[in-house]
Write the structure tokens for this entry.
Amino acid sequence: MAATEAAGKLAYRIYRAVSYGAEPVVNLHLRWRRLRGREHSLRWTERLGLPSLSRPTGPLLWFHAVSLGEGITAIPIIKECMKQRPDVNVLMTTTTVSAFEVISKRLPSGVIYQFAPLDTPSAVGAFLDYWKPNAIILIESELWPNLIMGASENGIVLALLNARMSSKSFKIFSGPLLLPLISLMLSKFSLIVPLSTMQAIHFQLLQASPYIIKFSGDLKYAVEEFDASEGELRSIQDLKLQLAHRQVWMASSIHRGEEERVHDCNATGTTDILGSIFWESRTNPPKMNFLYLLKIKAEVPLVLSAVMLGVHRVLTEMHPDIVTILVPRDPQHGLEIAQELQKAGQNVALRSRQENLKPGTNIYVVDTLGELRYLYRLTPIAVVGGSFFSGLAGHNIFEAAAAGCAVLTGCHVGHFSHMVLEMQRLNPLSVMQVSGKLELEKALKELFSDAKVLEARRMAAKQAFRALSTGIVANVWSLLNVHVLNQALC
């Protein structure tokens, strides 16, 4: 173990030196992203560790999530912390502009919201020196060497909630080059709450102490109501009235290419081109990750001859007045879909323009963020995307289940596989996985033609949600209180 620790410290010194030397290039890249609209035009300097708000007096807990989905996951436990410990200040950070635009409206009053610092020595050092958090609670897979080691050197308690890593990441982490560094980083945590049993095994194989690994359940099960504005509620209600007498289904969180064609579960998906070992970019705006220097996702061309749109055409033959709601993962993708459809002579309504569903309009494209859980209430059927290519890893199906939708998904669900399995274990009807376009067409035809089957699947999804969501926040709070707050605030 001493040899492993020494190797880990050496690896970290190399990482720190490389990241220090790369700071000028990273700063230029940050400015380039700002010009492209990928960073906040006014608050981008927060990414360099420069604050835009004052630090209040008293103890402070820092919650960090990379993007929108992880940030939404953190909100219920933030609310519980504020309820149980009103004497403690809460700081929330994310890295993406899309997360900022939505989460800043959802956080409870009193939470400080900043963009997270880049994992460079200067940015992390400036951030920690100013905010001086008593504890840092990271969400899912945010393992940053400068942040974790810097926090440890400053006596800051560390926790990792909903801890996960992909199979690809685990293979790289467990290799001889990175294992010493990963082992050293994990030794600095006081609490790791894995997403599933398999994830717990991964962390133990990466030499995390079994004494800090605790189970609570997936925080994504903690779907809660947000206070919507009067305008948001009125807009949703108007859309509900427009859909009242029409058949409707939704394809949500779809990625580029998923509106076109579905791969069979055994087919080869989009390709990943790996660069070196310190950067990663995904389908959302790129984020730093010490695994890769560069990862380029090969996009599928936007050809609207389609899976979701192909299924839509088949369904309109059965139900001419049917409405298909498309909710792309990227709002810009939604605008592109609408433009291409309009060029082809299709009548399309666009959410961002508050366009109404007129007679003859059968496609409603949602090119906005933060409304998905409200929109699920308007449809009896939800096909959750990010799951139809082998290069993707699924999205949260639980919001659709909470709304009482019949839930369908592809079979490339990545770290959401435990969610699918747990729901199906409770009730096999709660979520249906389809392997291709023909299976998706067949499933939707059955649901639209048999009201009893549709109702059975909707009830099964709702019941699975209720069973799995009970007590999640209380369990997580109990673990944080015992293993983090009692240590950080003593």
